[in-house]
Batch of 2 targets.
Target 1
Amino acid sequence: MNRRKLLAWLGSGSVGAVVAGSAATSGKKTGNRYYKGPVSDHFDGEVFFNPKGVPPRSLGDLLKWQFWETRAKWPASFPSPHPQARPVARVDGGGLRVTMIGHASLLVQIAGLNILTDPVWSERCSPFSFVGPRRVNPPGIAFENLPRIDLVLLSHNHYDHMDMATLAQLREAHDPVVMTPLGNDTIVKGSIPGMKIVTGDWGDQVSFGPAMIHFEPAHHWSARGMGDRRMALWAAFVVDTPAGRIYHVGDTGFHQGINYRAAAEKHGGFRFAILPIGAYEPRWFMEAQHQNPEEAVKGMLLSNSAFAAGHHWGTFQLTNEAIEEPRERLLAALDAEGLSKDRFRPMQPGEVWDVPEEIGSVFSRAQGAQGT
């Protein structure tokens, strides 16, 4: 095994060292180091799981992918066409402004709140500072130009979503509240004492200022290293405000659209959805955990979302697809569904979107997609 390739594999964020943890959890149970709680329909007393779902692939499958599959070559630099943004202090009234920072990190300004999703300002998303996926464009907002951050939504603990260096910076500069699924508080507090953290299980809700934050299911998994696979929960979030509802999904497999349908039935639909569109190839390895652009469009329709932003593409190379493929396939999928490209944008760093008011119910269109 080539030493350089081995180091790159071990540092590959959510699909490297964290997957290697499967070998350590395949034998005798050793107890959950992050969370202890009652058995539920998605927690067996030891680890979390996706009900009726497909678990993440084995270490053997990971090795097969890493050493037998061919990755598209990404450029060393992929500059955004948008300059770095300088956000306003607050957005009040009926406004909703979304600014792309990069990958799964977005600034959402609504109802007087400033919210960050899965913030990563670091150069690499990796357990190591010297190896692992390196960003090919700078963050769309310079850290020092952030407005006062009130809330961080932290969907799960993979390195491309939970970045301790960035969280520590936020703690020092903004002291926000971090909301995250069960078990992740143990990880964050172990590195950043004093961080204000609220945890929740699927179905929980927490009041925050003018908003109600709901923890909702996603079809994914978790790990930070050897032996902690699925010991912390993963989740999507619904942010319900006087200016509309937002549905943020950090990572998910499409999973027959089950969670999208449930979200629409529970909440009635959304003004805006933040949906992943990248890190999906090869499908035999990624399908259960990372949806592709065509599935993301179906998810927008099934969740009854008026508008959507595509994220999780174009900043860190985690998987095989070419850097611009997610955007191209998303736009083609919108054309195939007869949908305006203004409904679902593949956002790039620095891009700012003042999302329109809800355009009325699109639930009939979503129902049409349920048979797809």
Target 2
Amino acid sequence: MIRRFAFILIIGTLFLSGCSYKFYDFLFYDQELHGIQISGRVAGIDIIDLRAKSLISEIKIPNSQFLGYDVIAHPALTNSHKELIDMKVRSYFTNSGEKLKVVCYIVNTVKKAKASMFKSSEFALVEMSIAIYDEHDKLLDFVTSTFSHEHKPTGSVQYEIEYLFEKALRSVIYQCFDEFKNIKKTVTLGRAYRYSVVKKEELQSE
């Protein structure tokens, strides 16, 4: 009986280790976020936060999950996040051809953690708009995308939420460029550009 229990315990440990390995492989290696190259040389990337400053806060996870909690926050964009955005955006250009300017608008960010005695979950979301201009500041195209990731760990760890958030940042940028692919003539819908939550006047005032 003891041997049987030990065998089940070992199998369970190996299974959880395998799941953990796949999760961290998913977090840190973006095999699914490649294959897009837009012709152009990026002359500059601006990052503009459209969110109200009063809403921005970092998530605070209680030390013990046994009491249960359900917390949500709209995290600030750190210098590390901005460097990540800059690096990821540049990776989707060929670095040849005409000069282009890129503006990334941060529309929304969410970190959420929920836990009870028996289960927990972590959630990260990023909504971002990206505009591409030519060297004469003419808007070529504009897209807004939202992407989220959820993880249900055995225990809630704050740094995992940060990794999940960074993955959502990289994913939403990929999703925007998946819409761009070949830059087309800008399509307008009323006073806003396609998929846009930013008004035309706000874009032109930059």
